[in-house]
């Protein structure tokens, strides 16, 4: 079952278009996407992700433990990039380290959906508020990454850095769209759904094609840190998923919610973060923050990580 899911996800059109971009650079094609179009696609994707997340957030009705899980998830998404950056900074430039840290502080919606599908197939229930956690954990890592590289060498207060990070255009659009999706309710969602849902996959394909072209052109820079990032892309999800399981145990979550918590902590974003980083950290190299999340962490979690996390949770005796 896991290999079928892996094959289905890796052969999905968005991922194949990313690979097409890499191939175009490798064969020296003249295929190109203008920077203005890439920026427009980035803005659309962030708005769409925010609106969908806000709508899902309002559909959830968490209990006390669920609210605590949401809060810890947001805090973790904000804090983890600082720890990740400290490790990555030894081998990467600041902007590149911040870009990778943002990817691994954020979440992968496809990995989450895959884990949810496994729970459904196994008749293991999970709570709707975990979907809200998915929505809330996408943007805090972007704020952290901007704070990590903002005004290096200058003394700025935490409040000043936080304000500058939150008012950055990419972050403001993502958080603002999340709030608009939550506040406008079902009626508002019905108005924007045709614009947000149907075109999303197609425009995501064009954006990931653009990311593939950018990453391919800068792929030679990956040689110096390729092995390091590959190892990191396997160890990071294991360590972060273990933290998620620990917090789920402390909160006395059910098995299904514990697995989704582990997946949220242990996954890495290859959609939301790459959509924001060209505007947020233009100096960050996509060859560093896209391939590890997409080519290593994503298939590792789908094929091995999710069943491993579930086995650990069941061995620890979480309630069904």
Termini Cα gap: 22 Å
Q: What shape does the CA trace take?
A: globular
* Portion of residues within helices: over 70%
Q: Please write the string of helix (H) and strand (E) elements.
A: HHHHHHHHHHHHHHHHH
Largest sheet: none
- State Rg: 19 Å
Q: Which regions are unreliable across 5 or more consecutive residues at pLDDT < 50?
A: none
Helix segment tally: 17
Structural class: mainly alpha
Strand element count: 0
Let me know the average pLDDT.
84
Question: How much of the sequence is in beta strands?
Answer: under 5%
Give the gist of this structure.
It is globular and about 55 Å long. α1 (2-10) packs antiparallel against α17 (291-315), α5 packs antiparallel against α8 and α8 crosses α9.
3D architecture notes:
The chain has 320 residues and is mostly helical. Helix content is 77%, strand content 0%. The protein is built from 17 helices and no strands. It has helices at residues 2-10, 13-26, 35-59, 64-88, 94-105, 109-121, 129-136, 140-149, 158-166, 169-183, 185-196, 198-217, 226-250, 255-266, 272-280, 286-289, 291-315. Helix 2 (13-26) packs parallel to helix 12, helix 6 (109-121) runs antiparallel to helix 14 and helix 8 packs across helix 9 (158-166). The two termini are 22 Å apart.
